[in-house]
Amino acid sequence: MVVHLILSSLVLVAAAQKPTSSPAHRILPGWFPNACTLVICGPPEGGLKGEKQDLPRIQELWGPPGTPPNPGSKGDNNLPELESLKTEMKNLQVQLDTLKSIITKTQKVLLVPNGVMVGEKIFKTDGSRGDFDAAQANCEHMGGTLAVPRNAAENSALHQIVAWHNGRAVLGINDRATEGKFEDLNGQVIEYSNWAPGEPNNVGNEDCAEMHPDGKWHDRGCALEWLVICEF
Ligand SMILES: [Ca+2]
Ligand SMILES: [Ca+2]
């Protein structure tokens, strides 16, 4: 009799837990509310989606497994466009720098009207005077350098300013390093000169140069005082 009662109870419990077609959210008799069920599924027949069918495409783009993409692979299709953008940005930066330079020069010419423009260079003076080192320091303070004519046109432009002042102006050249070799302020031997006849003669150790009102150059001692003309 006891055995019969136990078997009957098991049959009732099993019947209560039999799955039905009822909605999943319905709490079935004998189930615990808020309990969880773990469902483990095997891979679908034919493999996971994108596993096998996408492999050739991936290998086409990136090469065989275990190898990094190379510059010639189809995965680098964006590289030429990227390089093109970089080049374009560099060109824009150059144009911007040029524009800034022109604006800066224009502002300086407006601030100091006693200037002459020749090519992309501007010679100007604020009327100050000084020896070679003071003149260079003054020009640097204004954002320029001491005037150095590089060709006949520049010499003519500088000559105009010197003639207006009817004086002598110091040039941004000297032969302090090597006697007889006149260099610009960057240490480069000058390629253009307009020395007066018999100059430079280094009389009494003359290592600097001045422009006379006739536009000709003379070497002179660097401690003399001249009209300061800067170039920008
Ligand atoms: Ca000399
Ligand atoms: Ca001389």
From TrEMBL:
Residues 132-231 form the C-type lectin domain. It comes from the Eukaryota. This is C-type lectin domain-containing protein. GO terms for molecular function: carbohydrate binding. The keyword Lipid biosynthesis does not apply. Its main location: secreted. Residues 58-80 are annotated as: Disordered. The lineage of its organism: Eukaryota, Metazoa, Chordata, Craniata, Vertebrata. It comes from Anolis carolinensis. Keywords: Disulfide bond, Hydroxylation, Lectin, Secreted, Signal. Residues 1-16 form the signal peptide. It is found in: Secreted.
